[in-house]
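To assess whether ligand presence alters the predicted conformation, the chain was also submitted together with adenosine-5'-triphosphate. Input:
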Amino acid sequence: MKEVMLTVEGLEKSFKDKQALKGISFEVRKGEIMAILGPNGAGKSTTIRNIMGIMYPDSGSITFHNYDGKEIPRNKIGYLPEERGLYKNVKVMDILLYLADLKDYPLDKAKERILMYLEKFDLVGKDKVSMEELSKGMGQKVQFIGSVLHEPELLILDEPFSGLDPVSQELFKEEIRSLAKNGTAILLSSHQMNLVEEMCDRLFMIQNGQKVIYGSLDEVKTKYANFKCTIHGKNQLSVLENIPQVQRVEQKEDTSILYLEQTVDPTNWLKQLPNNLAIQELKINRISLHEIFIDIATNNNLIAEVGEVHA
Ligand SMILES: Nc1ncnc2c1ncn2[C@@H]1O[C@H](COP(=O)(O)OP(=O)(O)OP(=O)(O)O)[C@@H](O)[C@H]1O
């Protein structure tokens, strides 16, 4: 197993009468992309802010290598906060060198890396431009550069893809993957489940300040992502609902989605379909992370049925 870089253990945090975190525990390992997911207000940013030392937990511990809490060398960590925006009337190169300096990173090396990244992110020549002259997406790229410039061992990205066009999204994805490949531990919060599904090795899902899922993407999919069968063809709802091992059916015009029980073996299940079904097209696949997320965030059906995954 990969070396553990960050350990969060039993984190509790309250704001006045609101308990935002109720015993959050997880690890982030060298070279992995770990997603922290959850509905709005679940506690993701609060968790991240505690790791970054922007606030301190009421109880629980945060360990980076062998350092605890306030001892953690934050210059070994990179952070792209949810709130975007750097000083407006400062030139791109100056603000990035300032950030590198804050992290005690050698400035000549930083300058080289800034120019390399500006080229990579399609911002050649923008080093001399002031921040206020950049578009929102360009500003976000510069802020991303600021978070990786000093070659952090742990990179925390709070909603890195929000507001990016598809091309810029690809650039970020590629860069994040390549950083992980080179050993950076990455903790990433995102609401874009398709991207999480594409990129992440493991995930931690939080709701109301509590863990609901923690495990590798494969484990989570095997455990939570039951099969569904999509049929294009005109069929009566009652007929579909009466097929064995069908939990529920969603119908839109001539397309029906049959959500199947966890124990279904697709080959055997297909063999016993009624022979008078109208089928123009049929496919079987596992439900997506997006659907798992919605299920958990809205009614907890899946969790109640199958329990938890542990990493
Ligand atoms: N500084 C604060 N003072 C009071 N309450 C706060 C503060 N920061 C967060 N909270 C509360 O803590 C809970 C968790 O908020 P947090 O920002 O961590 O959620 P989140 O998962 O990051 O949500 P989102 O997806 O909307 O960004 C919310 O109920 C929020 O109202």
